[in-house]
């Protein structure tokens, strides 16, 4: 008798619990999505796509998303490019700092007798013929009162004598300020890029003043990975920030050759600018992005992931500075941006974001004059301004922008 009662009670319990867990599957069980969205709307049952709007972004509309922005561009005054014949290039600007009443930027500078012949012909490069646009380069710097007109100041880091790191070319630098001193991290090439790849480690020079003189430390400060590791051949685009009282350098590498080359981002951390830098065990920490620029944001760090990979054209956020999630999707990102990041080195837990910077632009007009120019971008990725003109999601590009992306010769042959 007792066991029959227990049996009946258990069956009733199972039936009751399965009823309460039952998901509404029929349309009439689901509330229609409301016309007016309120805070409660977030809790109703909805499709995966609509759920993402509530859970993955700062706001349901890009205008409420502090990490969403359009980008506007302005030509700079003050730089000469030798009639754009390809013999002068300026590219890969660093982040911008404000010192001595003016803005400072550092960048890759090439001034060669002839334009680059290209990575594919790297074996024909010489002491005076560059392979790529960043071969046979030095690091130069410029200052500005307003960020639009710049005065070039000349060389910061020359190429050191052979066989020191960077003797063939120094390029793609970024700046760190730490305890009143300045540190430039950059790519140091020991062969013409393109010869066996685009292979280099990271070198560093430091100074008491942003105007130099700069003293190079011996050897590499961030070494390539061991054989078989994703970053075994190259550490590119070193990008230092200060977090938790340490130096955080984000960088990118390319791997999975031959095949579909995968470009991803890593992180190396040190107690002080001289190193040793320890690579994060979860590297790569970004699955996409080429020349990623980052800035402290709230407690975490935001990354502008412009080019390359599944998650290109996104702005990503990592509250712990390691595990990035997509925070916004945008378009026409600045190429190789270097932003003005006022709190880059303040160890902040309340990052404010950015509103402008410099980026580079391909200025080639024919097969012979490969070179790159610097320009300015503006945006609203800042918690301190609210610029609705930067928050729309509909760019009406003129037809020439579309038609400049015409079919290739090979594609035309298909028709
Ligand atoms: C850029 C950067 C690095 C590469 C080369 C110069 O896009 O990623 O700097 O080495 O191209």
Q: Keywords, please?
A:
415 residues; mainly beta; Tachylectin-2, Chain A; eight-stranded antiparallel beta sheet; 4 helices; 21 strands; disordered N terminus; binds 3,6-anhydro-alpha-L-galactopyranose
Structural class: mainly beta
Bound molecules: 3,6-anhydro-alpha-L-galactopyranose
Please indicate the count of domains. Answer: 1
What is the CATH homology-level superfamily? Glycosyl hydrolase domain, family 43
Overall, the morphology is: globular
* Broad CATH class: Mainly Beta
Terminal residue distance: 84 Å
* Main sheet: strands, sense, barrel: 8 strands, antiparallel
Give the number of DSSP strands: 21
By CATH, the architecture is named 5 Propeller
| Quaternary structure annotation | single chain
Write the H/E string, N to C. Answer: HHEEEEEEEEEEEEEEEEEEEEEHH
Number of helices: 4
Q: Report Rg.
A: 26 Å
């Amino acid at each position: 008798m007792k066991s029959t009662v227990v049996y009946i009670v258990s069956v009733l319990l199972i039936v009751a619990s399965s009823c309460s867990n039952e998901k509404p599957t029929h349309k009439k069980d689901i509330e229609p999505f409301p016309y007016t969205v309120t805070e409660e709307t977030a809790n109703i049952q909805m499709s995966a796509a609509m759920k993402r709007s509530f859970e993955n972004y700062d706001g349901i509309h890009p205008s409420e998303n502090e990490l969403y922005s359009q980008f506007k561009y302005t030509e700079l005054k003050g730089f000469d490019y030798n009639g754009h014949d390809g013999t002068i290039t300026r590219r890969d600007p660093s982040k911008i700092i404000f010192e001595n009443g003016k803005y400072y930027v550092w960048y890759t500078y090439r001034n060669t007798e002839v334009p680059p012949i290209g990575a594919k012909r790297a074996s024909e490069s010489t002491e005076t013929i560059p392979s790529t646009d960043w071969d046979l380069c030095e690091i130069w710097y410029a200052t500005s009162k307003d960020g639009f007109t710049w005065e070039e100041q000349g060389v910061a880091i020359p190429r050191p004598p052979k066989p020191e790191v960077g003797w063939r070319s120094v390029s793609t630098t970024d700046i760190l300020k730490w305890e009143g001193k300045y540190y430039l991290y950059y790519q140091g090439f020991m062969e013409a890029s393109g010869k066996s790849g685009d292979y280099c480690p990271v070198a560093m020079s430091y100074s008491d003043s942003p105007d130099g003189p700069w003293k190079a430390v011996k050897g590499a400060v961030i070494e390539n990975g061991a054989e078989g590791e994703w970053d075994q051949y190259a550490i590119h685009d070193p990008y230092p920030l200060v977090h938790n009282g340490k130096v955080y350098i984000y960088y990118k590498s390319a791997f999975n050759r031959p095949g579909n080359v995968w470009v991803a981002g890593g992180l190396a951390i040190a107690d002080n600018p001289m190193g040793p830098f320890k690579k994060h065990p979860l590297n790569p920490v970004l699955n996409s992005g080429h020349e990623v620029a980052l800035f402290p944001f709230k407690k975490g760090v935001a990354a502008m992931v412009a080019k390359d990979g599944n998650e290109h054209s996104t702005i990503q956020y990592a509250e712990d500075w390691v595990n990035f999630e997509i925070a916004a999707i945008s378009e026409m990102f600045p190429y190789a941006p270097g932003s003005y990041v006022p709190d880059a080195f303040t160890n902040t837990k309340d990052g404010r974001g950015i509103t402008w910077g410099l980026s580079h632009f391909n200025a080639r007009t024919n097969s012979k004059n490969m070179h790159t120019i610097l320009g300015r971008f503006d945006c609203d990725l800042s918690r301190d301004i609210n610029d609705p003109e930067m928050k729309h999601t509909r760019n009406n590009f003129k037809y020439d922008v579309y038609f400049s992306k015409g079919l290739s010769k090979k594609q035309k042959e298909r028709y």
